[in-house]
Amino acid sequence: MEVGELNTNGVVRRQRLTGAQRQRMIFDAAAEVFARRGYDGARLEEIAGTAGVSKALIYEHFDGKRELYARILKRGMDESFGIAMAAVAQQDESYARLEAGLGAFLEFVAEQPDVWRVVQQEVSDPDLIEIDHARQVRSEKAIAQLLVVDDGIACQGFDQAQIDLFAVMINGAMVRAADWWIAHFETPRELVLRSLMQFVWLGMDRIAAGDEELAAI
């Protein structure tokens, strides 16, 4: 496949795309269509048209719609997780780690909203459901580990079951906040992050500090 670009003399110069570049074009177009239509409603013909390629070219790189969707799903999960963990690794304290991880995750959502919509879509295919479940479990385990540091709340009286439950709740709040933000992108990321941290952290912090009212619930 070739694309044209103008050189300094105003003459169109043909540039052949690499296989990786073609795949990325198809990937981005598919994410857009899947985000808009859903898995069942999307058609390869529309994806091809959005990417500006032929349907036959899609089959040169992917077995079909299902594999294409699964690739977007897995890449979205891996990239969002990797970005968050890289941000976490730069911090030492549990609060700062959680804030950095959530902030990086929100940046990913802002930069790739279509991919995030695909990650969050409900599908009926059992294998795709399993991929999503694995993503959820990995995220919850990572959050639980963030809470277990020397200065963290996990060292202040919480047992493992409570830590795991906190991680499940934090993950759920994170996902729902991201979904809400996509529909309200006029809201500054800093406000979303601050609200998310206030929601998920203050209650745990108060319990760890011995708040009698919360401890009695």
Topology:
Blueprint: E1 2-6, E2 12-16, H1 19-41, H2 44-51, H3 55-61, H4 65-88, H5 94-111, H6 113-120, H7 126-147, H8 160-183, H9 189-208, H10 212-216
Antiparallel strand pairs: 1-2
Written overview of the protein:
By secondary structure, the protein is mostly helical. It is 73% helix and 5% strand. It has ten helices and two strands, in the order E-E-H-H-H-H-H-H-H-H-H-H. A hairpin with a 5-residue loop joins strand 1 and strand 2. Residues 1-7 have low confidence and may be disordered.
Radius of gyration: 21 Å
The helix tally amounts to 10
Order of helices and strands: EEHHHHHHHHHH
Reported CATH architecture of the largest domain = Orthogonal Bundle
Overall geometry comes to elongated
Quote the distance from N terminus to C terminus: 64 Å
Write down the domain tally.
2
Structural class, judged by helices and strands?
mainly alpha
CATH class of the largest domain: Mainly Alpha
What fraction of the residues are assigned to beta strands by DSSP? under 5%
| Uncertain runs | 1-7
At the fourth level of CATH, the homologous superfamily of the largest domain is Tetracycline Repressor, domain 2
- The whole-number mean of residue pLDDT values reads 84
